[in-house]
Amino acid sequence: MQVTVLPAIIKGTVTANPSKSAMQRAVAAALLAKGTSIIRNPGLSNDCLAALEVAENLGAEIKREDNHFEITSKGVQPLSHEINCGESGLGIRMFTPIAALSAQPITIVGHGSLTTRPMHFFEEVLPQLQVKCTTDNGKLPLHIQGPLQPKDITIDGSLSSQFLTGLLMAYGAAAADVTITVKDLKSKPYIALTLQLMAHFGIKVTETSFEQFRFGKQQAYKPTDYTVEGDWSGAAFLLVAAAVAGKAEVQHLNTASAQSDKAILEALEKAGATILPGVFTINIQRNGLQPFEIDATDCPDLFPPLVALAANCNGTTKIKGVSRLAHKESDRGLTLQEEFGKMGIRIDLEGDIMLVHGGTGIKGATVHSHNDHRIAMACAVAALTADGPVVIENAEAINKSYPEFYDHLQLLGGKITVDVQ
Ligand SMILES: O=C(O)C1=C[C@@H](OP(=O)(O)O)[C@@H](O)[C@H](O)C1
Ligand SMILES: C=C(OP(=O)(O)O)C(=O)O
């Protein structure tokens, strides 16, 4: 699919899409909880749909109602010898330890970018928990056979927090009197989100400095009613769109959320946008934009919208944390450099630092998403202030996290044409 985005003025109100990070965790917790859980305001992105399918294959019964899902579970009881996590990094890293709670041998597969993302962590860690595990040289497919037996363990958190999320969720169902110790944890707020979600489903973990996670006496997930919060990661693109090309109100965004990507507000403030935060609504307006400095090590998904913002700031913006981008849907540091380069924006990568030279004018161009949803969305936002149309190839990549994105941009005044080809 090819999408053409014309320069436009942004104005209007839109409701943030549901957070896929919250939704995927809730689906996993509902699978682990014996009984019926309700998930309201569910996400329907590809990653969320993949999580629902995995939960079904691991034994949950899922009923879709008007604006909620009813998930009934007897705990992990796989119906299939294979589970497919689609393209979701979180999905595979969270559901693998959960699937390993069962004694059944299971093959775990995925497609697209997921087949190139690193999984060697499991080969190193799961055998310590009595789970047999093989990979194809650290890549998919994974073959596992549990049952996972929690014990005191020390893991490396420097590559991704997602492995820890998976272990925490699985330990929640089976651990008693054990501690997970993690060294050099990155993306810490995602772990805060995991713990918050687990607490909502009745599982208490005592966390110390995001280094130690202590499980006391044996606990059980309790079925519950959960409402998925608005997605700061997707909304970041809309907020930047308003900051560079007009004004907007984005609703259903909780400023007290544990989501890491609410840090977009810090960047927008530093850049000089006018922001009026309510408790669940953000109003944002364009103002003279200045370059800024920010450390995005713990909120790596913000790089693409930050680059779209920085391209509109008069001078060089410095963003730290580029090394976190190498193993996302694409190698995002390089992808941003290449695609924004086509639009006339120079990006230098210096070790862990990205320098975006903004204010030089964004040019209309044909760009490619590299099958990376956040690259497609960043290019669409950059197009709003370009000197001509920006054509985005492989634009359907947005479906991974935010299928409503082009519609939402249009609601805010974006001029978009879609060519399905
Ligand atoms: O737990 C999550 O929901 C996520 C964690 C982050 O990954 P890392 O921990 O690998 O940075 C983030 O990039 C990803 O999009 C979603
Ligand atoms: C990297 C992402 O997700 P995941 O790692 O879950 O595939 C993302 O949403 O940008």
TrEMBL record:
The active site is at D301 (proton acceptor). Its main location: cytoplasm. The keyword Electron transport does not apply. GO terms for molecular function: 3-phosphoshikimate 1-carboxyvinyltransferase activity. It catalyses: 3-phosphoshikimate + phosphoenolpyruvate = 5-O-(1-carboxyvinyl)-3-phosphoshikimate + phosphate. GO terms for cellular component: cytoplasm. Gene3D superfamilies: Enolpyruvate transferase domain. GO terms for biological process: amino acid biosynthetic process; aromatic amino acid family biosynthetic process; chorismate biosynthetic process. It is found in: Cytoplasm. Transmembrane segments: none annotated. It comes from the Bacteria. 3-phosphoshikimate binds at K20, S21, R25, S160, S161, Q162, S187, D301, K328. Its EC number is 2.5.1.19. Keywords: Amino-acid biosynthesis, Aromatic amino acid biosynthesis, Cytoplasm, Transferase. SUPFAM superfamilies: EPT/RTPC-like. It is an enzyme of class 2 (transferase). Phosphoenolpyruvate binds at K20, G89, R117, Q162, R332, R374, K400. It holds the Pfam family EPSP_synthase. Belongs to the EPSP synthase family. Monomer. PANTHER family: AROM/DEHYDROQUINATE SYNTHASE, PENTAFUNCTIONAL AROM POLYPEPTIDE. NCBIfam families: aroA (TIGR01356). This is 3-phosphoshikimate 1-carboxyvinyltransferase. It comes from Chitinophaga solisilvae.
